[in-house]
Specification:
The protein is α+β, with helices and mostly antiparallel strands and 192 residues long. The protein folds into two domains: 46 residues; 140 residues, Rieske [2Fe-2S] iron-sulphur domain (Rieske Iron-sulfur Protein, 3-layer Sandwich). Helix content is 24%, strand content 20%. It has four helices and nine strands, in the order H-H-E-E-E-H-H-E-E-E-E-E-E. The strands form three sheets. It has a three-stranded antiparallel sheet, with no helix packed on it. Strand 5 and strand 6 form a beta hairpin. It is globular. 22% of the residues are buried. Bound molecules: FE2/S2 (inorganic) cluster. FE2/S2 (inorganic) cluster binds next to loops.
């Protein structure tokens, strides 16, 4: 027997034909099959627990002298770990309420641990990637700080970051990004 194929109604306005029902059923089966194929693929893309463990690093902060900065690799990209001077900290806190902060964060927020506990003001840990197009900004050099804010200067297009890594001038839209970290002791930090 031939099913109606010339209309989506069977003579009763708004009532689905058997053909409509077959389309719906076929579509549901196809969607279910696609989901079954997609799940193993998606599941394979999730990082394994051992990979995630490797994604964390521990760093001995006692190796960074006050007024200097270490550059360490984390998840394939560089981080800055700066041991700030009292003057740098004071300047960062003084600028907490500066009107030109375009990505408003206080210095206390920027040094907070990822578990929400207070951090250590002397250590600033940030991703070393300008938030404009990803160049590595320059911190203090032998001739002093480049730029007007005592922090970091991006040589690519001139973005300037202050001593808290906050964007103050230039095309970058956001502060230098703070990675998740917690202190394991006074001198040991776990990043990631
Ligand atoms: S990449 Fe830093 S200002 Fe453009």
């Amino acid at each position: 027997m031939e099913l109606s194929d010339s209309s989506h109604t069977n003579g009763h306005e708004g009532q689905p034909t058997r053909r409509d029902m077959l389309h719906v059923a076929t579509g549901a089966i196809a969607a279910g099959g696609a989901a079954m194929v997609a799940w193993p693929l998606i599941n394979q893309m999730n990082p394994a627990a051992d990979t995630m463990a490797l994604a964390s690093i521990e760093f001995d902060l006692s190796t960074v002298a006050e007024g200097s900065q270490a550059k360490v690799m984390w998840r394939g990209a560089p981080l800055f770990i700066r041991h700030r001077t009292a003057e740098e900290i004071a300047r960062a806190k003084k600028d907490d309420s500066a009107p030109d902060l375009r990505d408003k964060q206080t210095d206390e927020q920027r040094t907070m641990q990822s578990d929400g506990k207070a951090g250590k003001a002397q250590y600033l840990i940030m991703q070393a990637a300008c938030t404009h197009l990803g160049c590595i900004p320059v911190g203090v050099t032998e001739s002093g700080y480049l730029g007007d804010y005592g922090g970091w200067f991006c040589p690519c297009h001139g973005s300037q970051y202050d001593t808290s890594g906050r964007i103050r001038k230039g095309p970058a839209p956001l502060n230098l990004i703070i990675p998740p970290y917690v202190y394991l002791s006074d001198t040991l930090v776990k990043i990631g």
